[in-house]
Amino acid sequence: MSIELPEAYILAEQMNKVLIGKQIKSYDLYDYERLQKIGFLNKNIDEFDLLVDCKIISVISRGNLIRVILNKDVNLLIGPEYGGIVLYHEDNKNLSEKLHMKIIFTDETIFTIRLKGMGLIYTVKSSDLEHSYLYKRDFSDVLSPLEDRFTSNHFSELLKNSNRGIKSILVGKEAILVGLSNSAFQDIIYRAKLFPKIKGSKLSEQQKGALFRAIKNVVDDRIRLGGKFQFIDLFGKKGQYLPAMGPNMKGKICSDCGSGIEKLSVGGGQVYYCPLCQAE
């Protein structure tokens, strides 16, 4: 389960409600050596000492990344991209034994992070943020579906001259939007009734409009329903959003037309789709 833009947004909003003003008393790291070797934690573990005695000022998200802004020019970057679990605890009861980071506040409440796959936990001075790959990727000029400037006209202009496949347009390093991965992509193009390999330059104005609305609706619905169904929010509550398309549809039929769901290899991953509703 990938944590995409909607889930990162949910976590950041929840963190803003309960963490603002809290002061960090101490922290612990667990089983972090593998993550550190592949660059998912600070190379110098002592840099996490910057967190101690700092107060949380605000929490913001963009794309898949959460930025916790503290005083003293300190930031905690959290990128739980592949099934990470970020939790708030009123006390130390019932804490999971599988953690990568535990932060204890002066009021004895606790904040924990576990990365189940790829992800990131970094403590960074504000002056060094630009050295973080994930920060530069997500806190960039690339358009976010949650921004006011994400309009149908703006989106249509970005698509107009793109001769790439629709997946590379929406997902990956060269995407025109930030925060979407293969999971959201499958749901979006199913709602828009687009063939998974269609090129951006081949989209009609009607198809562009359908794609824009599908992106807005998928993102909005996932936020409204508390995230995707495997997602666990800050308070341990599971998300209620069930994708209309994806691996969950393997061996099933399309609810719109009754055709059997098929899959294609697209852009280095598997994409499930309806061969009738999303005909080439």
Commentary on this structure:
- The chain is 25% helix and 20% strand.
- The chain folds into 2 domains: 5-138, N-terminal domain of MutM-like DNA repair proteins, CATH 3.20.190; 152-227 and 242-273, Helicase, Ruva Protein, domain 3.
- The chain is built from 7 helices and 10 strands.
- It has 280 residues and is α+β, with helices and mostly antiparallel strands.
Considering the chains and any ligands shown, give keywords for the structure:
280 residues; alpha+beta; N-terminal domain of MutM-like DNA repair proteins; Helicase, Ruva Protein, domain 3; four-stranded antiparallel sheet; 7 helices; 25% helix; elongated
Brief description of this entry?
This protein has 280 residues and is an alpha+beta fold. Helix content is 25%, strand content 20%. It has helices at 5-18, 33-37, 133-138, 152-160, 166-170, 182-192, 205-224; strands at residues 24-29, 56-62, 65-70, 74-79, 85-89, 101-105, 110-114, 120-125, 262-266, 269-273.
Describe the secondary structure blueprint for this structure:
Elements: H1 5-18, E1 24-29, H2 33-37, E2 56-62, E3 65-70, E4 74-79, E5 85-89, E6 101-105, E7 110-114, E8 120-125, H3 133-138, H4 152-160, H5 166-170, H6 182-192, H7 205-224, E9 262-266, E10 269-273
Antiparallel strand pairs: 1-6, 2-3, 3-4, 4-8, 5-7, 6-7, 9-10
Helix pairs in contact: 1-7, 4-7, 6-7
